[in-house]
């Protein structure tokens, strides 16, 4: 039977009545349209005995469908099935059209759950913010069926994205990950070359320069930063926690998210036999692998072993009594007991780099550094220090949990070819 309500023109021919006109959108689920003297409304009906709900205005003549308060027939059909799914109507989820919006929302839910697990509280992930602001807000792209997504569709959307190159790259990466997750779940209904279309449409052209400025601290600057960190730690009542965190970042050159996930068992002292046959004692930090790239939240990469100086080790692990499964680096969490009245609470693990944003500004100022310097400078400095010492690119990359290609791309100016020295060092004189 032909649908009477799938366009504003058809609905305009229907008489005013308080009785809805119903259209079946899925087994047991009906979309209704009510044209009363006061308004034009969408309704949904489902279940036995049935339940009925008004949920949006219809996009009748001279009304623009916003996808939120006012909906088109297509949008209302999807929303009707979603409401039925929320009410646990059998078969509702299977009836939902597989759109960009659907797979993006599912991806956001996964990312939010992952970040909440890491931080121990409900949070909104960066992917949620980026995708909601730039993808879900675009009704045309969001309501596109997944099978209709092509490189041209994505390029047309991308042309309207006005972000800095670095933010644009992150957004495209999030969207690509969401669409590829959709491919894994719905590949049976998608064309064989669909993934290639996504890759082509969301390809980020190489700007030719690193989007992140390479900030390298000299030995004097690094000393000034750590001295300022110690002083401000005392003045701010951090109890050594701030200095310990910054020391761990500076000593390892690892990302904040990796350092913050270290536990007591990751700091240990080991004994070994050196090349000269003498006993050697090493202070070791085992850094959790990064969650960047394709590893995902559920996959656990191999920890990165870093040998550090004994003095630095004693700062990072001030005592050996930290439980093996407790956070190695923690801080005291202040609790507001009354308006503008705070007291010290329990010790908690560091959860976000933003927690040092305010003291870092003071540290940079006291150390006499440009205000543009960020804590990531510790990572740049560590990588450059090892490259200048002649360590092979592959080893430097492994010690910093990245790829040789990334090191070569972004730190090419600091790479020293020490191969001749190393070869000469192992050359044996066998002449008679």
Description:
By secondary structure, the chain is α+β, with helices and mostly antiparallel strands. 42% of the residues lie in helices and 17% in strands. The protein is built from 18 helices and ten strands. The chain has helices spanning 8-12, 73-86, 92-95, 100-119, 126-136, 139-142, 151-159, 165-186, 194-201, 219-235, 241-252, 256-259, 310-316, 357-367, 377-388, 393-399, 404-410, 419-425; strands spanning 17-26, 29-35, 40-46, 51-58, 70-71, 267-273, 279-287, 304-308, 330-338, 341-349. The strands form three sheets. Strands 1-2-3-4-5 form a five-stranded mixed sheet. It has a three-stranded antiparallel sheet with strand order 6-7-8. It has a two-stranded antiparallel sheet with strand order 9-10. Helix 10 crosses helix 14. It is elongated, with a radius of gyration of 29 Å. It starts with 7 loop residues before the first helix and ends in a 7-residue tail after the last helix. Residues 293-299 have low confidence and may be disordered.
